[in-house]
Structures are given as C-alpha cells and as structure tokens.
Amino acid sequence: MTRHLHAKHELQWSKHLKSKELTQAPPAPSFAAASASSSASGGMLAPAAHQTEDVPPTPTPASPSISTMSHGRVQLSISQTLERKRKFPPSHPQTLGLNASISKLLAFEMLSFRMVDTDSLKQLMAVAVLQYVVPSRHYFSKTAEPSLHNQVSDKIKCALRNAICGKVHLTTDTWTSKHGQGRYISLTSHWVNVVAAGPQAESSLAHVLQSPRIAGHHSLPPVASSPYSASSSSASTSSSSQPHTFTTNFSKRQQAILKLICLGDRPHTAQELWRGIEQQTDEWFLPVGLKPGLVVCDNGRNLVAALGLAGLTHIPCLVHVLNLVVQKFIHNYPDMSELLHKVRAVCARFWRSHPAAARLSALQRNFGLPAHRLICKVPTKWNSTLHMLARLCEQQQAIVEFQLQHARVSLSAELHHSTTNDWAMRDLCALLRCFEYSTNMASGDDALSALQYHFYVSLRKQLGR
User: Is 274's pLDDT higher than 60?
Assistant: First the structure.
C-alpha cells in the first residue's frame, strides 16, 4: 500500500504527511521507515508490539480513507456521525446565539416574521449548522423580538442616565402613511456621554463612564445593568477589573430613536401631538432626572403649536428651509418652469421609446460616454431636477447626434431648445449643487445646529454675493 501511494498518489500523499505534521500528531513510525524495516525483514511490516512498546496506549483517530485522503479530511466514526446529526436543544448556547442573530436580522432589515418559516431559510441553516432547528415565527414575534427590544431599551436608559448635561435635545417629524396605515410621529434624542477608551481611542473598546451630573446624588433609581454601561470607577482603575486598559477619556455624541408613535385615525392636531411627545419624554427622561431641551423639526403649524403647549423651544430644520428656498426658486424664476418642462419632455422621450433608448446607448458607446439613462424629474424632490439636468449635460454629445440622425419635428424643437440653452442648464446645475452640498452636510449623523451659520456664509460665497 505504501509503495502504491508513493508511485501513484505521490502529490496527495505528501500533502497528507505535511498536514499531519502541522497538526502535531503523536509520533508514529513513518511509512519510509516502515518500508525500510519491511524490506529488511523480508517484505513484512514489523510487529505492532515493537512499534508501540514505549508509547502509552491512547485512542487513535480513525485512519483517513483513500477517497478523502486527497482533501485532508478524516472519516468520522458512526458515533461521531450520529452526534453530528443530533439536533440542538432549545437551551443550547449555539441555539440561543443563532436565535438572537436572526432576531437582529429581522429587526434591522425590517423583514417579515414569515421569513423564518420559508424553506429557503431552513435549507440555508441546514447547510450552515445541521444541528440547529429554526423556531417558528410565533417565537420571534412573541419572545425573541420583545426580549431584543428590552435589551436595547436598557442600553438606552443606561446611556441616558450617564448623560453629561441635564437636558436631552430632540428631533421629530410627522407624516401620513401612503398605504392608509395611519399617522406617525418619530422622536429621536441626542445627548453626550463621557467614554473611556484604550490607546487607539475610538477604534478600541469604549465604556460609558458615570457622568459628573449624578456624582454624589443617589436619589436616581437604579437602571438595569447592561453591557453598554460601565462602572463608576475611573479609567485608571478600570484596567484592574476589565481585560482592556483604558487610557483616554473623550466625549461621544449619542443618539437613539425613542419611539415611532402611531396616532392611528386620530388627526394631527396640536393637542394629539403634544400628548404623544409628553408621554415619551415622561417615560424616558423623568426616571433618570433629565429634561427635554431644544427640538428640531420643520415649520408645520400643528407641530410648532404642540411644542408651544409642551413649553419646548423650537429650532427650524435647516434641510427643510433649504428645500423651501429651492422649490420657490424653481417655481418662481422667469422661464424656469418652461425650460424644465421641455427638458423633462426630452428625457421622457427616451424613457417611453425603446428604439430611441437603444440608439442613444449605441451613441454613448461611440462617443465613449458613460452608459447612463436619462433621469426624469420627480415633482416632490427638487434634487431630482439637479440630477436630471446634470445627466442631460453629461449626454449632450449623444443627444445632439441623435437629433441630427433622427430628427422629428416635435423632438427636434425640444432638443434644439435644450442645446441652445445649454449654458443656462450648466449654470443652473452649478447653482443647485451648492444647495445639495449643504443639504447633504446638514443631513449627516454628525451635523450640528452651530453649522447653520457656516452653511449660510458658504452659500453666499459660492453664489458670489
């Protein structure tokens, strides 16, 4: 057998020997030595007693079969095979971990609970972890998701309890579902915590430290402990109880969506909005000794009136103000509506006609232009106007060539108007890009209300005023 492996399967056998050496298997006589001894003894292998007389009797794994030897796998015994197919009980640690991961997947991606009952997910988990049994959707809807909600709530309460200031600022918005599911209010809180981090600061593990606001005050009710919270010890003493050494303290901005309030069929009156906001602020802030601070929202009359009833200070939303400015400019500037109407008709032409779109794609390849489709303006989004004009300027060469080759009376007039007013479209794109940049900056997670003056100065500078 050894000579056959050396002669016919030399490459596979050498790989097996190398893998066996890497795994630090118990010392055993090599096949080369066995071959030498067999040749010296007349072609017979030495008795097993002579090979193992100095080695204590230990159980050895099953020898690899010839079919799996080239892949470096070991054939399982019958008991190991049966153990591998045995299903995990519900209390098994791996089962609990997989249930928690699926719960996060359903929550973060906003998936339906019915997904866990689909054959596709069950087949996927059978390949990934054969012993795992996917629970039913009722388990996730009644047990797993409520438990995840409680864990997240405890983390938020721990972070709020250690907020630096005594006030938490809010952002809110109201809207009506297009599918007839009722009216909603979103309430997001923003605060600052002091955290302790390692030598790499934010890149390493950080722990929330107790705020000086509550130092020496024990009247606040205790909050359930969670992995997010940290002990009240300083960064220098935390290294003795924690596996990581914390050397840096820094302020970290935190934010969390407290509630998505559904009003159902109730109207968006100031009284209803005020009741919904007051209920959430009392639930989250009063137990930890906090008060609501500034509230950023749009200029809706009912919402502003509700904030007045609650005694809260209203800060206009900068993104909403920029949207109103651009919308008013687009609708009231002379000849702007006519230009946008004709440009949109040109873009719609290539959307409705497949032959025209195919010819435009061929012209894009000929001129080396990006293979982009034209964009039609969405009436409710002013930035779609910018994207439509920018795409039309990008594809100007292909559109002009299409006009020369396939000139139709109606389309030719529209294309001629767009090309002769190309300078106006480019200037309009440059103007709207300034507002889009400010909108994107003000919509970021790290945006601050103090940036409003910076945006104002930047817009005046870019607009040449």
Answer: yes
- Do residues 388 and 341 touch, judged by C-beta distance below 8 A? no
How confident is the model at residue 35, as a pLDDT? 41
- Cβ neighbors of 285 (< 8 A, separation 6 or more) are 160, 168, 291, 292
Mean pLDDT of 281-289: 89
Per DSSP, helices labelled H in 9-144 are 10-22, 31-40, 48-51, 66-69, 78-85, 93-108, 119-128, 137-139
Residue 68: how many other CB atoms lie within 10 Å? 11
Q: What is the pTM of this model?
A: 0.65
CB atoms within 10 A of CB 123: 10
* pLDDT per position as a tens digit, 344-402: 888 888 888 888 889 989 999 998 999 998 888 676 678 888 898 889 888 888 888 88
CB 230 within 8 A of CB 161: no
d(CA 239, CA 228) in angstroms, rounded, equals: 17
Strand partners, 295: 170, 314
pLDDT at 14: 84
Number of H helices, E strands in the chain: 21, 6
Q: Please, what is the average pLDDT of the chain?
A: 75
Tokens of 298: 């749009």
What SS3 string covers 220-233? CCCCCCCCCECCCC
Residue-wise pLDDT tens digits, 186-224:
899 999 888 776 655 544 456 677 766 665 554 555 544
SS3 239: helix
Q: Residue 107 corresponds to which tokens in the numbers above?
A: 């929550």
CA atoms of 36 and 27, how far apart (whole Å): 18
Question: Is the predicted pLDDT of residue 237 greater than 80, yes or no?
Answer: no
Q: State how far the Cα of 322 lies from the Cα of 436, in Å rounded to an integer.
A: 9
Among 52-56, 113-117, 333-337, name the one with the lowest average pLDDT: 52-56
Cross-strand partners of 291: 167
Under a CB-based contact definition with an 8 Å cutoff, are residues 357 and 350 in contact? yes
Q: Under DSSP, is residue 163 helix (H, G, I), strand (E, B) or coil? A: strand
Q: What are the φ/ψ torsions at residue 272 (nearest 5 degrees)?
A: -65, -45
C-alpha–C-alpha distance, residues 436 and 382, integer Å: 9
Distance CA 13, CA 1 (A): 12
Q: How far apart are CA 50 and CA 341, in angstroms?
A: 97
Q: Residues 6 or more apart from 385 whose CB is under 8 A from it?
A: 330, 340, 377, 432
